[in-house]
Amino acid sequence: MISFYINDQEVTGQEGWTILEVAKSHGIDIPTLCYHPSVQPYGGCRLCVVEVDDGRRSRVVVSCIYPIRPGIKVLTGSDRVKNVRRWIVQLLLDEGPGSVQLQQLAKTYGVKPSRFKAEGKGQLCHLCGLCVRVCDEVVGIQGITFGNRGLLREITSPFHVASKVCVSCGTCLYVCPTGAMEQLFDEVRG
User: Fold this and answer.
1) Domain hosting residue 142, numbered range
2) Is residue 95 domain-shared with residue 20, that is, in the same domain?
């Protein structure tokens, strides 16, 4: 077991665990959108940032992919962390302004609604990739994927053609943190 501190509380975790996993096992809240215990950590939403002091320097890291180390000191709600989360929530809200979860996070962190107007089906999706990863890692098929690049990036079926491998299991619907897959599900299945 590895011993370290989260918010001045001594905690322990198994080797190979991340800060987020240890925090969850000790009932310490760190907000997330793209994390799910059934899939490998991805760090896509970046919302789970924490401040880590390893004795040499202090830095902000993504807790779902940062491995625990003996003696580190983790802060989950420092001013620095709150500031970074505020910017992350603003960016996520710009990406998916229709998401109730993102709107609630915006209220929590004092983020104003975006001045940019999003249109179309992408108003809920913030591209965390949880649906893509669960389809691949848990269901074992690749019925959905990321399509396009940059500002046009979206969740879609491979090659933008109705998926022939989708088994309509609904796992992507279940894990989607914003409900965006409810709009995309029929389109992906064809």
Assistant:
1) 122-189
2) yes
